[in-house]
Design goal:
Oligomer: single chain
Distance between the termini: 33 Å
Helix content: 10-25%
Number of strands: 7
């Protein structure tokens, strides 16, 4: 919303078509660079013990950790190579275990959260 107001203040609608295209490309490139920087975080390294591959190879889950033992879990679709972060707004300090149904439609994430506590997350593909 703020960006729209700023473009209106710059008289975006009265600019030449070339200037409009340049500004829109600049905005799009900024969004792409933010996504790439988020995905390729150099502080995290993939832990091979935490990798889960579906039995039909349709997807894989990689767990990466940093020096403070914070974990990130990435789900990657093998057909489209689309990656998504499973624990977006969580601080996970323990590696998770994954199990899936035989048809690979449901995935369960089992994860320790502290002394004697565990959480279960159910994902649908």
């Amino acid at each position: 919303m703020l960006l729209v107001r700023q473009l209106i203040n710059l008289n975006f609608f009265s600019m030449s078509p070339i200037a409009k295209v340049f500004i829109l490309i600049l905005i799009q490139c900024t969004a792409v660079f933010e996504c790439v920087a988020h995905i390729t975080d150099s502080k995290f390294t993939i832990d091979p013990e935490g990798t889960y591959i579906a039995s039909d190879n349709s997807f894989r889950i990689d767990q990466s950790k940093n020096k403070d033992y914070l974990f990130k879990m990435w789900a990657t679709d093998s057909i489209t190579n689309y990656r998504t972060l499973l624990n977006r707004n969580e601080e996970t300090r323990y590696m998770a275990g994954f199990r899936s149904t035989p048809n690979e439609k449901w995935l369960v994430r089992m994860q320790k959260t502290g002394a004697g506590w565990q959480t279960l997350f159910l994902y649908y593909k």
